[in-house]
């Protein structure tokens, strides 16, 4: 096949970023070929250089980055050598981009339709009236509600999933030859994600547009892409047709990405209840967010609370910790009712209920070293000082598979997984009976997630700690929980042991939630499409 | 899973940087400092030396009166004498000590009051925050120089009342800034984690929030120092600031102002009132140079290359 058959032909592309007073390679010479109408999935962990490559394939780099080698032929033009003026003519017309956060990418002061047609009209592709009519067609094609009038709204008046689809419409409006999707559904709830995926895939197929789809979620890319390319440390690991890649990946690294969902544990029941939430109502001001929530947490077990954003999962945690006193009901710990207010709880109760946060970055003071972070609860609760404290901190570091080299480091000198481990050690330092885990793995890469989950399970076995595990990720839930609580709009929908909840028959909402989780099967989305029509 | 994909937490590559001592890091920062920051530091160092060693450097005493008032510039009196015959050059050197000392004390006090209240308000965020914030708004609505004049005429113009009054007025600005930056830090998870641990207000203020808002506060400290300095000079010029015989630059401008009329007879004499004014201007410029560098560093903006 000659080079002319490719719409986009990237050869040996290198991108460097400026940090610590020198240029560091981010993408280290990657080839990428794409035919017209083909969809390529770029997959890899954070830091693999997938977004950087996706942008560089358009001839664009973020501030502080530069393309240092290679070529990117698009339609007979080398985007690496092209002048800004040439590139500007292609961007937004032939080459378009859909960003991860639609909410941050729209101008809040303009109506959606004005933004959708802006490039088309400015570049003179079609006059205003034709462009607006076309935008309405696109809205309909993307299955947006009220396609005739939705364009008259402002960005804040539509939901996140709708905004993401409007952004896709904006990218499709000039009928580009290539669209780059950069994690377009990562910020969305699973049930919304399915709808967005369906409409994006349909639009891309109907208009025969080539696309690069960047994501870290294998199951998602399996639905969208014809070809998958796996990246790691800025280099290509392997590339293959989607079905072939899923069926028989060649490289060990790819296989490890595939196999992380294989964690599992046998659910065990227990009657020894350590924490009980009983008939709790809670409100932020006048907005009532929890309605009669009752959850029991057995000692040494894991109860997962699942639900979409806004379902009241995190609010339940705030009630338990005392940050948000309930307006009705109570929380009992080892049989005694906890004071509703944080300030009225004694040190011993505070010690026994610990919390781990989603963003380890913001959960640690950037100005304190690891030794100070873990040492403080030791001093505060157990009165350990000086050498004894240092010794215990190092013991804790070893328990979380790190070592004393980390004692003097600042949080900024740790990787994402290491940060989360330090947060776990800080909770362990208090010697708790209950740990509330608020989405602790959702900001992490899959392999790192697996490590954290394994660590949590091992610690549970050793120390008999109960976890209240808040998450929206069903795969994690299936892996680690003993019991599952499904929440929706501030109410408990279903509650029971893992096997009960995950096996049919389900209440309607549980069914919707479970069926919306992408599976590692390239036909999954097609099946869903048929079922839901 | 194959062996090659075995996961090890400790081996996970973080951003490992060589740890350096505080002194080494400071030195590296200093080497990267722009030229203007070096000028600023040189000016401030010069003033500090003058202030500390004033009695050794000055040829005459601060309040020593000589026979000839308004003496011209000469070898004996480098910059002449003032209206009652005190050596202007010596008073200029002593002025550095008095004016800078009082300005520093005032700025520190302003930060103690404004910063402390700002932190409390940012953590509390309830009626107490409202009370302090609205109180500060009321204070800020009164023109500060006129307010200071009024308070000074009530309480008398001693050095102590000068410090306390200017510090109180300036602490409103410090409060505003501290509260604004601390509010952003107070909502971070690590502050919540500290509260859940049961930490008291003092710990949360000092150990969790304060270290994270230091850069803007340091920059504000420099700017606030300049404003306090200028306020003291203005008040002294108006006659309610630092009282004679203590030397300070504001009142020296006022006392020798009439010499400017003699420009046609003795051009050097006409410069006499301008020299303390220039001294005020110079330190303001120097401090601003230094503060600009701090602001640039703490804003996190890097030059893109």
What would you say this structure looks like, in words?
The complex is a heterodimer of chains A (533) and B (305). In chain A, 38% of the residues lie in helices and 25% in strands. Chain A is α/β, with parallel strands linked by helices and 533 residues long. Chain A has a six-stranded mixed beta sheet with strand order 6-7-8-3-9-10, sandwiched between helices. The two termini of chain A are 40 Å apart. Chain B has one domain: MetI-like fold (Orthogonal Bundle), CATH 1.10.3720. Chain B contains twelve helices and no strands. The A-B interface holds A 18, 20, 63-64, 252-253, 255-256, 259, 262, 321-323, 342, 345, 347, 350, 354-355, 357, 359, 362-368, 376-377, 380-381, 400-403, 405-406, 408-409, 412-415, 417-418, 421, 426, 430, 447-448, 450-451, 455 and B 1-2, 4-5, 7-10, 12-17, 19, 188-190, 192-193, 195-199, 207-208, 211-212, 302, 304-305.
Instruction: Write the CATH fold name of chain B.
Output: MetI-like fold
How many helices of chain B? 12
Largest interchain contact = A-B, 54 and 32 residues
Helix count of chain A? 21
What CATH calls the topology of the domain at 273-367 and 415-502 in chain A is: Rossmann fold
* Element pattern of chain B in H and E: HHHHHHHHHHHH
Cα-atom radius of gyration of chain A: 25 Å
Chart the SSEs and their pairings.
The complex is a heterodimer of chains A (533) and B (305).
Chain A (H helix, E strand, L loop, with lengths): L7 E12 L2 E13 L4 E5 L6 H7 L8 E10 L2 E2 L5 H7 L4 E4 L3 H4 L6 H11 L5 H14 L18 H13 L5 E5 L7 H17 L3 E6 L2 H7 L2 E6 L2 E7 H6 L4 H8 L13 E12 L2 E12 L3 E5 L6 H9 L6 E6 L2 E2 L9 H6 E4 L3 H4 L6 H13 L3 H14 L16 H14 L4 E5 L7 H18 L2 E6 L2 H7 L2 E6 L2 E7 H5 L5 H8 L8 H9 L1
Parallel strand pairs in A: 3-8, 3-9, 6-7, 7-8, 13-18, 13-19, 16-17, 17-18
Antiparallel strand pairs in A: 1-2, 1-4, 4-5, 9-10, 11-12, 11-14, 14-15, 19-20
Chain B lengths: L21 H11 L2 H18 L1 H4 L30 H37 L2 H15 L2 H12 L3 H28 L2 H9 L3 H38 L10 H8 L10 H5 L2 H25 L7
